[in-house]
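> tool_call: predict_assembly(chains=two)
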Amino acid sequence: MPTLDPKDTKLIDELTKATRSGRIKWSPTAKSDEFTASFRGKFSVVVSEIEPPLPGIMEMATGPLYPPREPSPARFRLRLLDVAGRLLLDIEDPSIGTLLESVRRYALQTDKALDEILEDLRS
Amino acid sequence: MAEFLKENWGNLASVLGLGISLCVLWVAKKARDAAEEARSFARIKSLVEELEDANHKTQRAGVYLRDRKWEIAQLLTDEILGACRSSLARWGDQLRDSKNNLLRACTVLSSVGESCRSAATAPLAEDAWRQTMAAQLEALQLVGSTLGEVRRAEERSKNANA
């Protein structure tokens, strides 16, 4: 896996921080586990979990292979697009997983739900 | 008095000329401001029409998605995407804070279009269909909120012109 440019790492870190503080509005797309946010009306960031490849035709025909294979680690992707939909950046890194988890929490309003439950429990 | 006028007619004429020039300048500035306001109003009106059309088409796309008529839904999605991108390019200044909303709608609509394209060749799983419907609703909400903001700007512009 190619190493990330320091700017890419900085982008992922800042996106994660800003998402956790609720400063970015994310929307789910039509694909499972994919979310998008826009900046300055010019750029879109799309984060997603890469779906594992489907089993090969031989594997499907013969059933699961023994001993069972280790599940492949989850892969995460971040794309940066311009206003015309042109791809400016396409990176894959495990650190995007942390960002995606924060985005999920934002999109599902998990923290809000937890706050309400905690408030109920306290009273 | 007649003596004063006779001796200073040149100065008086200069002062009068200056007054008239200032007056003409003021009128010209007012006319330019009015023309600019009219142009701005016309731009907002065009933007409202374009977004109303996009909003209407997004609603229709939802109906076709529900009925799994992928080709029509894809066609509509592509049209909406074109309209939203054109709005962003032509009226970016008028959109202000809504630019991000509209751009987000573009990315979401693009994913809806991709789903329709793949569904036209291989059947879409139930989960994927639901996700596509949810994305269409998200896009509808984003286009709708942008339209709402532009309509407010139109009303403000109308009141300023009145």
